[in-house]
Each structure stands twice: as C-alpha cells, then as structure tokens.
Write a structure and sequence with these properties.
CATH superfamily of the largest domain: P-loop containing nucleotide triphosphate hydrolases
Oligomer: single chain
Helix content: 25-40%
CATH class of the largest domain: Alpha Beta
CATH topology of the largest domain: Rossmann fold
Radius of gyration: 27 Å
Number of strands: 22
Length: 568
C-alpha cells in the first residue's frame, strides 16, 4: 500500500566547514501535490533539495520514502527511489537527439532499440501534454524544448518525485503556462512536484502548499489558498518589507546612447545580432525582453567593448555645458535650432525659448554673452576596448550576466575587486589601497552585504551578496549609461527589490539605464520602455505603461519580419 507521504525529511542538518546550510529540517512532500520551496539566498533551499536528489549527503537526520527510511548517497540512489531533479542549467549533449539524451546513463539488458526509445518518449510526451520530436537534435531546439527533454529524462527513468529548480527562468509567459499545465497533469497522475522558484506569482498560482526556509531552518509550511504574498515574504525575511516597485515619470529624457545597424557574429560565424537599432535616453529605464539566447548578452557586450562588431555604429552622447556660441559662428537658423533644445541664460541658468523672438534681439543677447548653449559631444564607441572607452571620458558601467566570470574575481576580496575599476590611477606605479577599502566598506554598509569583512573572497558570498558588490561598484563609478544583464537572476525577493531601488535611483540621477530581465511582470512595473529582441533582431519597442505580458510574449516568439521598427 502506498503511503500518502511520498517523501519525508526528519532532523536534516548539513554543514560545509563552519557554515550550517541546513539545521534540523523537518519537511514532507505528499503524493499528488505541488510543493513550492521559498527562501532568501543562502536559506538552504538548493542544498536541501540536493540531498533529496543524492548530490549531497546529510550530516544528521533521516529521509523516508513511502514511509520507510532510505539512504540516498548519489543521483543513482535517488532514481532507485523514483526521485529526479531538473536543474536550471540543462545537462544535454547538443549533437544527440532528444531520445538519445533521454537514454544516456540508462543501462538496459541487450542494448538499446532506438526505435522503441523514440516510441516511449512520444508516449510520455503525449500522456502529459509535451510537444517534442524524439528525433530532433538538441542544437535545433528552443529553450523550452530542451527543458522538456530534461523532464522526460527523469520520467523515462520512472520518477514519481520531480524537483524543478527555477523552471520558468528562461521561458516566455506562454511557455510557462504550458509547463504549468504539464505539471498539473503530473500532479493528477499522482506525481509529487517540488518547485524551487523566486517568482511569487507562480507560487500562488500553481502550488498546493508552500514551505519557507530562513537561514537554513524550516520556519513554516502553509496552504497556498490560505496565504498571500505579504505573509510569505515576511516568513522569508523575518520582517515586513515593501513589495512596491516605484516607477517615476522620466525627467528631461535625452538620447544618451544610439545604436544603428548593429551586426554581430559568434565565434562560429553565426549571426547573433542582425541590424539592431535603438536608443537609450538619460533619465529612463529601457528594459530588454527576449527568450534566453536571443542576443541580449552579445548586445550589451558589444556596447561595452567586449564583443567584436561586424557592422554598425555605437554612439555615446556626452553633454557639454556652459559652452558659449557666438552669433558670428552660427547662422541665425542654426542658432534658433540649437537654442530650441540647448540654450540657457547665463545668470539664472533657466532655459531660453527663441520662439517668436525678433532676430535682432537674439543677436543682441548672443553677442552680449547673455546666452550660453549646451553642445553635446558625440563619441564613437565602435571597436573600442573597455579601457579605451573609459579613457575617452565615457562613464559606462556594465553588470554582466556572468558575475564571477566577467564581473568580479572570486578569489579576490571585496576591496580588491573595487580596484578593478581604478587600478591604473595609482601614483608612481603604486596602488592606493585605502580608497578601495573605503568604497568596499561603504557598499557593505549601504547595501547590507552579508560578509565578515571587505577582505572576504567574493566566491564565499551568496549570489545576492555577490550581485550587491558588483552593482555597488559599477554605480560608484557615477555612470551616464548603466547596463545590467539579469541583475536579479537567482536572487531572493529582498535582494531583488534592493537592486530595483538602485536602478530607480540611477534613473532619477539622469542615467540611461538598460535593464535586461526575464521576469515580464518586473519589466512592466519597473521600466519606461521595453525593447523586445527575437533571434537577434528587434521585434519592437513599447511603452511599458501600456504594454501587456501577452503582447511581449508574442513579440518574443513571433517572426521578426513584421516588427523590425520601433513602436515608440
């Protein structure tokens, strides 16, 4: 007789050196339910699930499967007890078909009959509502198709308990809804689904119960129908926090960055950006939406000087103030045109309008030096390295997708990572280590970075704290253009809202903020405009205040032929 509890944890504790990742955790997962796991970064969610999946072994405590104690020392042991985990980063062989990937690691007597495997994969797909071709190569698949293969892999092995880690992080809204439909069918079939996610709206919409972890301990499990976002957030962080994303109206938006006809190819010669044109304004947040791998990373790297460009222009507009322009150096018409946007009075500093003013009066004021003009400096960024861009006086900050691979050096302390922005500014060949330490201490205090001190190696910090250090360093550079690729990916709700506040503050300071995100709800709440990129092409730019998730989702997946122009 099957037990109503599929798997149960009692007194589970896991330590890594002096760090206690999980402490005395009691948790159960029922048959035929979707259990969501919530918690801040470093709360022990993934560690706990990795022990169920056989990746880690608990130092203390017991695991029960179907009412009987079991020992799980490896993923193979987990599969013996019908437990499978679908990780956020897929583990597939690109040159293999879906069916070939499914049977990797499966030992069957007499070898494999690929035809039978194809039929079995099709049967599983049909049963749960997947759409997959067993003979299709992985390199020809979309992100959602690859995820489907990962799920079918564990179902093929007979899994009754499925653990999904951030499954919608790379999916469109439509693909997410399709996945949730599949999970509901699995639930109705008696499967137990454990969902690790930071998206509160998904937790409330899909799960039956929610288990909350805080600082490695299990603080509560609640019925989803009996809770709400505020209560769950308070359980996660131990206090009430505001969940409102402030969006102010853009102030004096002027073009700060212009990209025209940008074309970029990868190392294999495949075009990843095709005729991309857009502009970013100072004093606004421009969001970039798109399915993962659509060219977002290459676009930001091309702008920042990290990616070679095949064709196109990247122009930075640097405002130069208090530059006098005499009447004799400009024609009257040119003066009028220039003054319409950039003229101001020398004493009051107030803008001056020349509309309807007699030409003689304009000439008199200009010759008397009572009128000054702002002439913008146009700087070409194409084929410039990050160092050359900096030496041109362009204040451009970039938070890359790969935090520790490109943004920070994991083996170096927080203070030493601050110097990566200013190591060439030392005197007589010597580095001034005092200023980086001061900056590190300021960031730790202001952004509430959880760390023993500024000398702590960055790799020892949680994902949220690593991101705070990186964002804090880039903001300290006082940028005119601030670009961030998935800055809240993998962060808990508290850390995420800290990042949103920092982006909003940059907007208020007149910075042109470019924000690449994957949560469409956040993009719609935070941004002023949203540019959608689809297979390396721009499929449209919309006003975030009037757009919908469905509209963005369609633009992310629809053919770009009909959307190759700006809508705003």
């Amino acid at each position: 007789m099957e037990h109503s509890i599929a798997i149960e944890l009692k007194g589970i504790t896991k330590r890594f050196g002096q760090t206690v990742a999980n402490r005395n955790v009691d948790l159960d997962v029922r048959r035929g339910e979707i259990l969501a796991i919530l918690g801040e970064n470093g709360s022990g969610k993934t560690t706990l699930m990795n022990m169920i999946a056989g990746i880690y072994y608990p130092d203390e405590g017991k695991i029960f499967f179907n009412g009987k104690e079991v020992i799980i020392r490896s993923p193979h042991d987990a599969f013996e007890h019908k437990i499978g985990m679908i990780h956020q980063h897929f583990k597939l062989v690109d040159l293999f078909t879906a069916a070939e990937n499914v049977i990797l690691g499966v030992h069957e007597k007499g070898g494999y009959d690929l035809k039978s495997v194809n039929e079995r994969v099709s049967q599983i797909a049909q049963k749960y509502g997947f759409h997959i071709d067993p003979k299709k190569k992985i390199y020809d698949m979309s992100v959602s198709e690859k995820q489907t293969v990962e799920i079918i892999k564990v179902l093929y092995r007979g899994a009754d308990i499925l653990i999904l880690d951030e499954p919608t992080a790379v999916l469109t809204p439509k693909e997410s809804d399709q996945l949730f439909d599949v999970l509901q069918r699995m639930k109705e079939d008696g499967k137990s689904i454990i969902l690790i996610t930071h998206k509160m709206n998904e937790v409330l919409a899909v799960s039956d119960r929610v288990a909350v972890l805080r600082k490695g301990e299990h603080v509560a499990t609640v019925n989803t129908k009996e809770t709400n976002q505020s209560e769950l957030t308070e359980l996660m962080v131990g206090k009430k926090i505001s969940l409102n994303i402030e969006r102010t109206m853009p102030i004096e938006t002027k073009k700060r960055l212009i990209v025209k006809g940008l074309k970029v190819s990868n190392i294999d010669g495949r075009k990843v950006l095709d005729d991309v044109s857009f502009h970013a304004n100072g004093g606004e947040i421009l969001g970039i939406a798109g399915i993962a791998g659509s060219g977002q990373r290459e676009l930001l790297e091309a702008i920042s000087g990290l990616q070679k460009i095949d064709e196109g222009e990247i122009t930075f507009i640097n405002p130069k103030k208090n530059k006098p322009v005499t009447f004799f150096h400009k024609s009257l018409q040119t003066v009028k045109d220039l003054a319409a946007q950039n003229a101001f009075h020398t004493e009051s500093g107030h803008p001056v309008s020349f509309e309807g003013m007699p030409s003689k009066q304009i000439k008199k004021w200009v010759e008397a030096g009572e009128i000054l003009f702002n002439e913008d400096e146009i700087i070409n960024l194409r084929d410039k390295t990050p160092l050359q861009i900096r030496e041109l006086g362009v204040r451009l900050s970039f938070v890359p997708e790969d935090r520790l691979g490109m943004g920070l050096v994991g083996s170096m302390g927080i203070a030493d990572n601050m110097m990566l922005r200013s190591y060439r500014k030392g005197k007589a060949g010597f580095l001034d280590r005092r200023r980086p330490r001061q900056l590190a201490d300021e960031i730790i205090k202001r952004l509430q970075v959880s760390t023993p001190g500024s000398s702590t190696p960055v790799r020892r910090l949680s994902g949220g704290n690593v991101q705070k250090v990186l964002v804090g360093r880039e903001i300290a550079f006082s940028p005119k253009v601030f670009m961030a690729a998935y800055p809240v990916r993998g962060l808990d709700i508290n850390s995420s809202y800290t990042i949103y506040e920092l982006l909003n503050q940059q907007k208020k300071n007149g910075v042109a903020v470019i924000f690449v995100g994957e949560d469409l709800d956040v993009l719609l709440e935070l941004c002023d405009r949203i540019m959608v990129i689809n297979s390396g092409k721009i499929s449209g730019v919309v006003d975030a205040r009037n757009a919908t998730k469905e509209q963005l989702g369609m633009m992310m997946t629809k053919s770009t032929e009909d959307h190759a122009k700006e809508m705003v």
